[in-house]
Specification:
- The protein starts with 12 loop residues before the first helix and ends with a strand.
- It has a single domain, classed as Vaccinia Virus protein VP39 (Rossmann fold, 3-Layer(aba) Sandwich).
- The N terminus is likely disordered.
- The chain contains 3 helices and 6 strands, in the order αββαβαβββ.
- It is an alpha/beta fold.
- The protein has a 6-stranded mixed β-sheet with strand order 1-2-3-5-4-6, covered by helices on one side.
- α2 links the parallel β2 and β3.
């Protein structure tokens, strides 16, 4: 069962660094001052869901019930020209996966379980599989690959 006492999973630094080397992120759309991955970020108080996103965005959303709203927002902002790279649970049975992830540019399935830091279980492996989903303007056919340990 993929459950947890929290929906706040801080992005592993080495995992983010690998992706940042490729994408060169300019905005972290859902962060806090203590876990932001970019100098420019939207905090809970800023409410990234109500903001306009631009540039190359990193999104590791809260993994609770509102995750579908974040994935929808990522898709919509990509249609306005932003590139949005998302770290989300690989929940292929959900409506948001079928409605939006399947319209992304790329899906990278993470091999193994990520080791999250911060508040989420004090640095344990995730109790769920993860995916990196890339939304780019004008691209609707996902390319599937894997990322992580070999």
């Amino acid at each position: 069962m993929f459950t947890s006492a929290t929906d706040d999973w801080e992005t592993p630094a080495d995992f983010f660094s690998m992706l940042d080397t490729e994408f060169h992120f300019t905005l972290d759309v859902c962060a806090s001052a203590s876990n932001s991955k970019c100098p420019r970020f939207f905090s809970t108080d800023d409410n990234g869901l109500s903001q306009s996103w631009s540039g190359v965005c990193w999104m590791n959303p809260p993994y609770g019930r509102e995750i579908g709203e974040w994935v929808r927002k990522a898709y919509e902002e990509s249609q306005r020209g932003a590139t949005v790279v998302c770290l989300i649970p690989a929940r292929t049975d959900t409506a948001y996966w079928h409605d939006y992830v399947m319209r992304s540019s790329e899906v990278r399935l993470v091999r193994g379980r990520l080791h999250f830091g911060g508040k989420a279980d004090k640095g344990h492996n995730a109790p769920f599989p993860c995916a990196v989903v890339v939304f780019r303007w004008g691209s609707y056919t996902p390319y599937f690959s894997s990322v992580g340990r070999r």
